[in-house]
């Protein structure tokens, strides 16, 4: 009896093992094209992850309803895998690794914010997986990383745009900056702004104050800023912090203008900040109000599907997918082996010299960075983001 | 000079929140010798309860004015948050106490309770941040270059009032005497005919109700709510309570304001980056503990609460 039980046990173990072995087999032809998404669905900026996911779902539906993506005369359905990086740098690298090693994606879109995109870009580059960050503007994301690309303009371009605009619009001679020191995006942009402001000889940056990501009280920093009496305050921060900073600055008696960066551009800013954010300006990638052509079509469809205006990260995610799709088409065929396919997609990406997207057309330079225009947007009396002017390199 | 006064006012407001939360830590520790690590999250729950209440009261079905909403929301928030604190005591701490579990396990349980509150909030309400409605028409008073808002005054006055009230309850009332008795010897006290469970529940009611008040005032001052808002401020308030001498009400009050003043002071100091805020703040607190390991007002094996 004991021997019988033993042999049954052994048989079971063998069956289970062989099931695992068999799972590795199957036919060689890939059934779907897997693209991973590294998104902040929870954490500090959940709205950004949500917007990107919405845009991606729209794109996915378009392609798959048409029977899939045609590569080399054959149609393959797309599969998008969304993973949450919790708006944290360390989670973003974990998500990238998981997508590469466990899900065997051929390419990754995201992370959005530079805080996550800079470390995740390193992971993707080391693992030879193509990555496009839709929204990251920090130069380090793509610097010396042949596998990493982006759809947004860079901070060395955005910083001077803000400086020029503020000098012209407010007639500003002095500027103050308050930024998040533990966020690559915020810190990088603050420093670039400071050097470009001073390089233009416009006047001094009278206060350069930092804060931490989890801070909610900025009154001490703002007291220093206001005591220096600047003509305007530049706040390259995420929207949740912007809402608190502006309110506390007004409580401390500051009445002058604020200037923001592309991280302001979400409908949640107005929800959290209310009318205290009205009549300020920020630089960004596109303006939804008054859009034309393909951009308008995208905005209308997004509004119909999700009931809100798509912010810049949604539009940039759409463009990133577009760039990726073009790269896959350039690859010419779909390989079963993800490693070979990644190589082909990277070749396809670097073959793209220019791209006409809904956030404007862009040319790619040697680093994989697009050269494209920025727009300055005004938050009007109703809390809408209205086009103010466009600045091209 | 104006710069200095302005920063003192900033520090008073910021310290008020630390003091209010630290008072809750110190009360529970004083009676039970339990570090209630879930206290910061009870504060967070208080802010969310206040958000829910004001949403309902301001909503179309009741339609109170913002000021009346504030008047009703304060006691209601305190009562409901007290219920949360008492529930935690009933389902988490009391069974362990009955079984005579070591204090360490109760502290770990408290940590878990904190996580449960945070993540159940995240699961129910999602990661999206909430905007707290403006309940009090904000007026900004200017005195030279110094500005102060009516909200700031309310926060500071509330912190002082809570301290005075708690000090009175603990030192002048019978129930306060019972609390100090349990702190002194929780095995002998039931023999005197004192209902120990009732006193402990009362302690949790007091601590949690004032955490709820702190949550409400905090949400009004920094009107953006998220599930993890109680974590960091809870830890820091705990440290403030330890530096003040945990178990001592005066210590929690002074410790809270001390931390507020050091944090704001480091940022306001010219030539010192605000990046160094926490580094300097906690180094200073560490030095205080080196000199006096029991905290500013603490005594070895203190019997006070």
Explain this structure.
Helix content of chain A is 45%, strand content 20%. By secondary structure, chain A is of the alpha/beta class. In chain A, the strands form four sheets. In chain A, strands 9-8-10-11-12-16-17 form a seven-stranded mixed sheet, sandwiched between helices. In chain A, α2 (46-65) packs across α11 (312-331). The mean pLDDT of chain A is 88. Chain B has 305 residues and is mostly helical. Chain B has one domain (2-230). Chain B has helices at residues 2-32, 39-58, 66-98, 103-125, 150-172, 174-184, 196-221, 229-244, 249-268, 277-291; strands at 130-131, 140-143, 146-149, 224-225. The longest helix of chain B has 33 residues, at 66-98. The chains are: A alpha/beta (393), B mainly alpha (305). The interface between A and B is medium-sized, with 32 and 38 residues.
Q: Count every helix of chain B, treating DSSP H or I runs of 4 or more residues as helices.
A: 10
In angstroms, what is the radius of gyration of chain B? 19 Å
Largest sheet of chain A: 7 strands, mixed
* Global shape of chain A: globular
Number of strands of chain B: 4
Strand content of chain B: under 5%
Signal peptide (chain A): 1-23
Keywords (chain A): Signal
Family (chain A): Belongs to the leucine-binding protein family.
Protein name (chain A): Branched-chain amino acid ABC transporter substrate-binding protein
Question: Which key terms come to mind for this protein?
Answer:
heterodimer, A: 393 residues, alpha/beta, 7-stranded mixed β-sheet, 45% helix, 20% strand, globular, B: 305 residues, mainly alpha, two-stranded antiparallel sheet, 4% strand
Topology, element by element:
The complex is a heterodimer of chains A (393) and B (305).
Chain A: H1 2-23, E1 33-39, H2 46-65, E2 69-71, E3 74-76, E4 78-84, H3 89-101, E5 107-109, H4 114-126, E6 131-133, E7 148-150, H5 155-169, E8 175-180, H6 184-199, E9 205-211, H7 219-227, E10 232-235, H8 239-251, E11 258-260, H9 267-273, E12 281-284, H10 293-306, H11 312-331, H12 338-351, E13 354-357, E14 360-364, E15 370-371, E16 374-379, E17 385-391
Parallel strand pairs in A: 1-4, 1-5, 5-6, 6-7, 8-9, 8-10, 10-11, 11-12
Antiparallel strand pairs in A: 2-3, 12-16, 13-14, 14-15, 16-17
Chain B: H1 2-32, H2 39-58, H3 66-98, H4 103-125, E1 130-131, E2 140-143, E3 146-149, H5 150-172, H6 174-184, H7 196-221, E4 224-225, H8 229-244, H9 249-268, H10 277-291
Antiparallel strand pairs in B: 1-4, 2-3
Helix pairs in contact in B: 1-5, 1-7, 1-8, 1-9, 2-3, 2-4, 2-7, 2-8, 3-4, 3-7, 5-6, 5-7, 6-7, 8-9, 9-10
């Amino acid at each position: 009896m004991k021997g019988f039980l033993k042999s049954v046990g052994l048989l079971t173990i063998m069956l289970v093992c062989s099931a695992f072995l068999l799972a590795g087999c199957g036919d060689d032809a890939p059934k779907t094209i897997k693209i991973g998404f590294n998104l902040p669905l929870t954490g500090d900026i959940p709205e950004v992850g949500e917007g990107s996911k919405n845009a991606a779902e729209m794109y996915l539906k378009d392609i798959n309803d048409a029977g899939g993506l045609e590569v080399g005369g054959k149609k393959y359905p797309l599969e998008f895998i969304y993973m949450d990086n919790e708006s944290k740098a360390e989670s973003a690298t974990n998500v990238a690794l998981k997508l590469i090693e466990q899900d065997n994606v051929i390419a990754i879109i995201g992370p959005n914010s530079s805080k996550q995109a800079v470390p995740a870009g390193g992971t993707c580059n080391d693992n030879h997986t193509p990555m496009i960050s839709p929204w990251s503007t920090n130069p380090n994301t793509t610097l010396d990383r042949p596998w990493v690309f982006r759809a947004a303009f860079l901070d060395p371009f955005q910083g001077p745009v803000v400086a020029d605009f503020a000098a012209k619009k407010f007639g500003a001679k002095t500027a103050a900056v308050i930024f998040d020191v533990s966020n690559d995006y915020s810190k990088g942009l603050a420093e670039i702004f400071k050097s470009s402001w001073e390089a233009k000889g416009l006047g001094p940056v009278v206060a350069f104050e930092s804060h931490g990501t989890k801070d909610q009280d900025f009154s001490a920093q703002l007291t220093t800023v206001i005591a220096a009496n600047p003509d305007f305050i530049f706040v390259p921060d995420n929207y949740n912090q912007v809402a608190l900073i502006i309110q506390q600055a007004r409580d401390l008696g500051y009445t002058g203008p604020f200037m923001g960066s592309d991280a302001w551009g979400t409908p949640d800013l107005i929800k959290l900040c209310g009318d205290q954010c009205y009549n300020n300006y920020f630089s960004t990638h596109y303006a939804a109000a008054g859009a034309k052509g393909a951009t308008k079509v995208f905005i209308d469809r997004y509004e119909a599907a999700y009931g809100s205006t798509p912010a810049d990260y949604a539009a940039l995610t759409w463009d990133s997918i577009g760039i990726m799709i073009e790269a896959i088409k350039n690859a010419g065929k779909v390989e079963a082996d993800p490693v070979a396919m990644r190589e082909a997609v990277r070749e396809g990406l670097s073959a793209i010299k220019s791209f006409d997207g809904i956030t404007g057309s862009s040319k790619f330079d040697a680093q994989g960075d697009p050269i494209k225009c920025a727009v300055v947007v005004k938050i009007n009396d109703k809390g809408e983001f209205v086009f103010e002017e466009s600045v091209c390199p | 000079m104006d710069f200095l006064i302005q920063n003192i006012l900033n520090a008073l407001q910021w310290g008020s929140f630390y003091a209010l939360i630290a008072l809750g830590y110190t009360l529970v520790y004083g009676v039970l010798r339990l570090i209630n690590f879930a206290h910061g999250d009870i504060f967070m729950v208080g802010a969310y309860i206040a958000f829910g209440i004001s949403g309902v009261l301001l909503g179309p079905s009741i339609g109170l004015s913002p000021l009346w909403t504030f008047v009703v929301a304060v006691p209601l928030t305190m009562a409901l948050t007290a219920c949360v604190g008492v529930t935690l005591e009933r389902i988490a701490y009391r069974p362990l106490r009955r079984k005579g579990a070591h204090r360490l396990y109760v502290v770990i349980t408290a940590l878990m309770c904190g996580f449960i509150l945070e993540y159940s909030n995240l699961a129910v309400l999602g990661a999206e941040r909430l905007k707290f409605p403006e309940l009090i028409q904000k007026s900004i008073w200017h005195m030279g270059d110094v500005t102060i808002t009516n909200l700031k005054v309310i926060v500071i006055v509330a912190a002082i009032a809570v301290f005075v009230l708690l000090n009175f309850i603990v030192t002048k009332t019978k129930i306060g005497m019972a609390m100090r008795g349990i702190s002194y010897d929780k095995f002998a006290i039931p023999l005197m005919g004192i209902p120990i469970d009732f006193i402990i529940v009362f302690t949790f009611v007091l601590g949690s109700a004032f955490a709820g008040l702190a949550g409400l005032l905090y949400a009004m001052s920094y009107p953006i709510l998220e599930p993890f808002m109680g974590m960091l401020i809870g830890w820091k308030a705990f440290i403030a309570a330890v530096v003040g001498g945990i178990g001592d009400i005066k210590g929690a009050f002074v410790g809270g304001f001390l931390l507020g003043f050091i944090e704001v002071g480091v940022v306001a100091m010219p030539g010192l980056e605000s990046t160094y805020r926490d580094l300097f703040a906690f180094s200073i607190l560490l030095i205080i503990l080196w000199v006096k390991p029991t905290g500013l007002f603490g005594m070895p094996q203190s019997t006070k609460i």
